[in-house]
Amino acid sequence: MISKFQNNDxxxxxLFIIAVLAGPIILAPFGAGYPDLLQxxxxxxxxxxxxxxxxxxxGYLSFGHAAFLGVGSYSAVWxxxxxxxxVIPGLILAVIVSGLFALVIGFISLRRSGIYFxxxxxxxxxxxxxxxxxxxxxxxxxxxxxxxxxxxxxVLDGVNTTGSLPSTNLFGLAxxxxxxxxxxxxxLQFNAGYYFCGLVLILAFYLSMRIFRSPFGLMLRAIKTNxxxxxxxxxxxxxxxxxxxxxSGMYAGVAGGLMACTDPLAGAERMQWTASGEVVLMTxxxxxxxxxxxxxxxxxxKYFENIFSKINDNVLHGWFSFMPDGLEDIxxxxxxxxxxxxxxxxxxxxxxxxVIFLPGGLIQGxxxxxxxxxxxxxxxxxxxxxxxxxxxxxxx
Amino acid sequence: MSILExxxxxxxxxxxxxxxxxxxxxEEGTIHAIIGPNGAGKSTLLNCFIGxxxxxxxxxxxxxxxxxxxxxxxxxxxxxxxVFQTPEIFADLTVYENVLIPCFAKRDGSFCLNPLxxxxxxxxxxxxxxxxxEDVNMADKRHMTASSLSRGDKRRLEMxxxxxxxxxxxLLDEPTAGMARADTNNxxxxxxxxxxxxxxxxxxxxxxxxxxxxxAEKISVLAQGTVIVEDLPENIKGHxxxxxxxxxxxx
Lengths: 396, 251
Hints:
The complex is a heterodimer of chains A (396) and B (251).
Chain A lengths: L1 H6 L1 H13 L1 H5 L7 H24 L7 H17 L4 H23 L4 H22 L1 H4 L5 E2 L21 E2 L2 E2 L3 E6 L2 E6 H22 L1 H11 L1 H5 L5 H26 L2 E2 L6 H14 L6 H14 L6 H7 L5 H11 L7 H15 L4 H17 L18
Antiparallel strand pairs in A: 1-6, 2-3, 4-5
Chain B lengths: L1 E12 L2 E12 L3 E5 L6 H8 L7 E6 L2 E2 L5 H6 L2 E4 L11 H14 L14 H13 L15 H13 L5 E5 L7 H18 L2 E5 L3 H7 L2 E6 L2 E6 L1 H4 L3 H8 L4
Parallel strand pairs in B: 3-8, 3-9, 6-7, 7-8
Antiparallel strand pairs in B: 1-2, 1-4, 4-5, 9-10
Helix pairs in contact in B: 3-4, 3-5
């Protein structure tokens, strides 16, 4: 039973760490083993984990989380411009600024719940987007986006004599440093930026696990199921929802900061509502309210966006070349609409299927599969009562 | 000594006068029943105690402190718990988690930011929650999702949740509505036992006269938004005003 498996948090954590560390090896056969995409898996994984703390636990659906992502990016890039190209100060500022942002937006938006809350957050995010795009040009550099220049002070880094833009680094270790290894005919790319993002992802996952298992997390889940009862049980729900909102805003800030760390520029489009919607899709696709679901959802969507969208008709013809010519053309003709530029169509269909048949997300599908595999052994220890421990069942 | 004092409470909804100069006093350590025909304003009155409604005029004091203007969670923290007519529980959580929550609320107050503690390491909370479930005979159902319980069990769970807070005053809104006779008798036993063991003051709204007369030490009869009689149970049955209210002699 996967719930037993998930009860065992240490094992889950261990598997997660191994999966992240071995990411370049595991994903290389799927064509996703290149640093740029691997970094994106981590970054959006963090974004979705944070979003899940708000949406998955409290049920408050924010449609404006991209605002915090954008704020995080801008803060980090400003740190790169003014202070140093080291990523640590940039990330710290990203967390602080996005946290403050979330505090203000959350304080106002959480006065309402349900659809009104969603609309309020959406309104704030669109306001932030418009401000970044036009009015706040001195800070955000408007349409062009905030970029590094040679004239930036970078107080701690000293004078730049190379004449080219410096790259982001972690105490000297350049984020874009990549070690290539040939292995079984594949090129494995071990990238410093990926491992930095991966470490932050592991930390983010661990923190979210702690929150899920804490009394605080229990209260958040109680808010989702019956906020009234909680009020009449002597709990003030407002500070709980606000804390969850700020925490998830900070997660988004970290994700935005990491985006800037791996590619030091920030544009207003990161704050647009489509980006906010994307994280909602990721969380629901993977399984809202579960620990692992959001990461899986984020990986799925980013994989589709980057790999599926690159399959063109030549690739398809290559796949189906064993078929007779007429049939091959027909099949390729049909499939053509679902890959390449049509990847969103496939994703949309997949999303619909998941929501209808697996309301618990992809993680629920995984649970079913694991349960089927284990159903044979289960018969043997069915007589042993499983509730001997005092542990509270996880949110799963 | 009275723990809950209600004086001249009025509440109107638009043109409808739901409560009209209600006076009521609940003695500490007793079970006080509030009865009355449908629409008499019983639930409205209870809602005024827990901060769900605010009376237009009048005062509600609990243990000498005014409850008016306090938020529901603040009122609860002063020691007032309520069992609702339709059980209000955390339907998506397990029975056990349902009881954990009030235990935490009692110990940690209305807000506690502790995202890095482990629920499973809070031994005192677990002891108490387990104890509460045993008290209402639901320990064997602790891993069930609350929404899958029968109505009677939901009600008992809600009672356990309220008792987990060691309230000074327990408000019960038709605690036996929709229960089978056997369950009703169990509930009566349970309430008596609780009252005997913990001396919790209770205010009960009830339709079932069997329950009222086997539990209550004092009865207030509410009709058309006002208390018409407040007396001992033995004096209530034959009271002409009560018969008039119930048999509709007013029209």
